Amino acid sequence: MSQTTPVTDPHDHPPHLAHHYDTPQQQMASGKLGMWVFLGTEVLMFGGLFVAYAVYRHNHPEVFEYAAEKYLNKIWGGINTLVLITSSLTMAWAVRCSQLGQKRAMVTLLGLTLLGGVAFMGIKAVEYHDKWKHHVFVGPTNIYRQAQSPAQGESTASAKPAAPAADSARLKQEDPNIGTSDEPRLRPLAAPPPGLAPAAKQRGGAEVHDPQRNQRLLVSTFFSIYFLMTGLHGLHVLVGMGLISWILVRGLRGAFSPQYFTPVDLVGLYWHLVDLIWIFLFPLLYLIH
Amino acid sequence: MSTTQASAAAAGPDEPAADNYLTHRRGVRSWLLTLDHKRIAVMYMVAILGAFLLGGIFAVLVRTELLTPKPVFLGNAAREWDLYNHLFTLHGAVMVFMFVIPGIPAIMGNFVLPMMLGAKDVAFPRLNLLSFHLYALGGLFFVYVLLGGVLQAAFGIHLPGGFGLDTGWTFYTPYSTGKSITGVIPATMGAFIMGFSSILTGVNFVASIHMLRPRGMTWFRMPLFLWGLYATSIIQILATPVLGITLLLLLAERALGVGIFDPALGGDPVLFQHFFWFYSHPAVYIMILPAMGVMSELVPTFARKHIFGYRFIAYSSIAIALLSFLVWGHHMFVSGQSPLANAIFSLLTFSVSIPSAIKVFNWLATLYKGDIRLQTPMLYALGFLVLFTVGGLTGLFLGALATNVPLHDTYFIVAHFHYVMMGSVLFAFLGGMYYWWPKFFGKMVDDRWGRIAALVVFVGFNLTFFVQFVAGSQGMPRRYASYPEKYRIYHVISSIGAYLMAVGLVMVALNWWHSLRRGRPAPANPWGSNTLEWRTSSPPPHDNFAKAPEADDPYDVSAWRFDQASGGWVHEPAQRGFDVVVPPTKA
Fold first, then answer.
1. Domain A21-184+199-286 adopts which CATH fold?
2. Shortest Cα distance from B543 to chain A (angstroms)?
C-alpha cells in the first residue's frame, strides 16, 4: 500500500525522491522527459526499417502486393491489432488506477495487459510457423531464394551455381504461379530512382538478363523486411511484457501511490509506443493492394 | 561530511577537502557500481584513453609501413589476410567509436555538466552507469576482434566470428556482408552496443539540461559548453538509432543472409551507404560540437574577457546540429547518386560552413584586445583555431562537386577529416583535459612541460597531415599499402610527423602522470573562470556542492582576482550563492 509515503507536506522528502532532485514533481517531469526522448530514439530506429520498406516497395510495388496477398494472413493480423489496442486500453486504465491509488484494479489491469502481450506473441508464433511451413522464412532458407532460375538456368552462371532442380520443383509446388504468366512481372522502370538505382541491375551482367530471378529474390527480400520489422517489434513486445511484470510485482508489494506512480506511467508510455508501431506495421505489411 | 563556509574566504577553498569524491568510498565495487557522475567520468577516462593508446599504436604501425613504397611487414600477398587492411580498419574503428565520439561528452560532459548546473548528479544516475557498462561491453567486442586477429596472426588459431577486421571502419557492403572473412559480426555488435551507450548518455544530458538548471540559469545564461553538449545530445538521440538499425540489418544480412544490401541477394549496397552516412555524417558533429563547447570555455577564460556573441555561438550549435542531418549525401557523390541529389547535398554542405565560421569569428573576436594567458589549455585552444580553420576550408574543396570527383578517396580527404576529427577534436580534448584536470584530481599540471608538449603535438600534427593534402591532390589514393615512388617523399615526411606527434602525446601522458604523483594541490578556481564547477573545492566532494549555487553570467570574469598566496583565483567581493566546501579540521 501507500504506507511508504507519509507525504502530507510536499516539502518533506519522501523516500522515493532521489537526492539530486528538489521536488517529486521535478523528478517525475525528468523521468517523463527522458522517456519521451527515448521513445523518439525508438521511432528513429524503426524509421530505418520503414525507409528500407519504402525504398523496396517503391521500386517493386507488385512484388510486395503479390507476396503479402499470397502469404500474410489478414485475419490473424487483424486479431493481433485488436489484441494490442485492447491491451493499450487496459494499460492506460492501469495508469489511471495507479494515480488514484486503486491498487487491486491496477494489478488486475496490468495482468490483463500482460495477457494481451502473451496473446499477441502466441498469434505471432502461429504466423511465423506458417511461414516456416511454406518455406518463406528469412535468408537462404527462403524457397524463392533457393530456386533461383529454373527456367533460364544458363543466364545465372556468373552469380551462383544453378539451383538444383528439386528446389525448383518445390517452389513450383509451393507457388503454382511460378513459370506461368501469372507470376508477378517486373514492372519496367523508365529510369532508375534517383540515388537508389537498383544496384542489382548495374552490377553483374547476369541479373539484367534475368528479371524473373530478380523478381523471386525480391519476394525473399519482402520476407526479410517482414521478419525484421515484426521481429524487432516482437522483441519490443517481449521487453514491454518484462517491464509490465516488473511493475506488476512492485505494485503487488505496494510500491506505488498517488504520490509516486512514475514507473507505471513510463512503462505505459512504452507500451503505447509498441502498440503504435504495430498500428503502422499492420496495414503496411498485411493490407496492401 | 563537509562543512560550509558561506563567504569566499581566500584560504578556505584552496585547501584540499578531506573528503572528496575520490576518497568518499573505497574498493573496486565502489567504483564499478558507483552512481556518482564524477567517478563514472573517471572510469570513462581510463577506458577512453586506453582506446586512444590502442588506436594510436595502430596509426604508428600504419605510418611505419608507409615509409616504403612496397609493403614490408604488414602486407603479405601469400596469405589470405592482409595485416595492413586490418590495421587501418581497427585504427579507424577504435578511434571513431571508442575515442573521438565518446571522448569529450563521456569524460568532460559527465564530470562537468552536472557541476556547471550546480546539481548533485545527472538526471538519471543509474542510466549513466548503464551507459558506461554498455561502452565497456562494446569495447570488449572490439578487444575480442583484436585478440582474434593477434591469435590468427601469431598462432593460426581461429576464434568464432572471425579474426581482425578489414572492412574499413565504414563496414561498406557487400564486402562486409559477403567476402570479408574477418570479425565483422563481433565488431558491428560492439559498435551497436556502444551506440546505445551514446543514446542513453544523450537522453541523460538532455533531461539534465532541461530539468536541473539552477536558479538564475536561463537558457541563455548557460555555459556554452552545455549548449554544445545539448546540440550533441540531440544528434546522438536522433542519429544513433539509425546507425543501430543499420548495423542490425548488416548483422542480419551477414548472419542470416537477409537480402537488404547485397546485390547478389536482391539488395542495394547504396542503401547501406545512405543509412550509414545518415548516422555517420551527424556523428562528425557529435565529435566536433562538444569540442567547440570546450573552446567556448577556454577562449574567454584565458583571454580574461567576456565571450563575444554568446547567442550566435549558442544558436550556431543548434544550427549545426540540424544541418548535420541534411548533408549525408556528400559522402556518395561518386556512388551513383543522381546529379540533382548531388547538387542539393553540395549546396547544403556549403551551408554548414556558415554556423562553423560564426563560431570561429566569435572566438577570434573574443581574443581581440583580450588579456591573453598562454597557459597550456589556451595553447590547445589556439591550435584548435588553426587546425579547424584548415580542416573547415579544405572541406569546401570536397563539398564542391567538380573538385570532389578527383579528390574523392585520396589522401586529401584523409588529411581533411584528420584536421577536423583528429586535429580539432583532439586539441579541444587535450585542452579540456588540461583545463579541468585540477578539478578532476585536485592536482595542478606542470605548465611548462604542458606547453612544450602542446607545441610538439602541434608541429607533429601539421607535419603528418599537411603533406597529405599535397599527396592527395597529386592523386595518392587512401587505404593502399603500396604506392608509386613519386609519393614517397610525402609519406616519409608524414611518418616522421606521426612519430613526432607520438612523442608529444607521450610527453602529455608523462605530464599528467607527474601531476598525479607530484602535482601541486589545486585551488578551487585555478583559471579564474566564472562557471559553477569552479565554485567548489578541487576535487569536489561527493555531493558536489554543500548548497546549490546560484548562477549568474557564466562569462563575466571581472570579479575574479588572482590570489598569489593560494595560486588560485578568488571572487571579490564575496558573492551570493558562492559556496565553497572546506574540509573539516582534521582531528
1. Four Helix Bundle (Hemerythrin (Met), subunit A) (1.20.120)
2. 9
Mean pLDDT, residues A115-128: 96
Cβ contacts of B256 on chain A, cutoff 8 Å: 138-139
Question: Would you call B121 and A20 a contact, using CB atoms and an 8 Å cutoff?
Answer: yes
User: Is the pLDDT at A62 greater than 60, yes or no?
Assistant: yes
Question: Does A13 lie at the interface with B, CB-CB under 8 angstroms?
Answer: no
> In 3-state terms, what secondary structure has residue B582?
strand
Q: Is the residue at B24 inside a domain? A: no
Between helices B488-518 and B37-65, what is the axis angle to 10°? 150
The interface predicted TM-score (ipTM) is 0.87
Q: What are residue B38's phi and psi, to 5 degrees? A: -70, -40
Contact (CB<8Å) A20/B266: no
Q: What is the pTM of this model?
A: 0.88
The shortest CB-CB distance from B120 to any of A20, A49, A198 is to A20
Please determine, for residue A161, whether its predicted confidence score (pLDDT) is greater than 70: no
The CA angle A269-B202-B239, to the nearest 5 degrees, is: 85
Higher pLDDT, B144 or B573: B144
Query: Which of B175, B260, B277, B544 is the best mutation test for A, with the most CBs of A within 10 A?
Result: B260
| Mean pLDDT for all residues in chain B | 89
* Residue contact A195–B257, C-beta within 8 A: no
Q: What is the pLDDT of residue A194?
A: 43
Closest of B198, B210, B379 to residue B295, by C-alpha: B379
Which of A21, A45, A217, A227 to probe the B interface (max B CBs under 10 A)? Answer: A45
Integer angstrom CA distances of residue B292 from A120, B200, B239, B296, B571: 48, 22, 20, 6, 27
Name the residue ranges covered by the structural domains of chain A: 21-184+199-286
Kindly indicate the confidence band of residue A1, based on its pLDDT and cuts at 50, 70 and 90.
Answer: very low
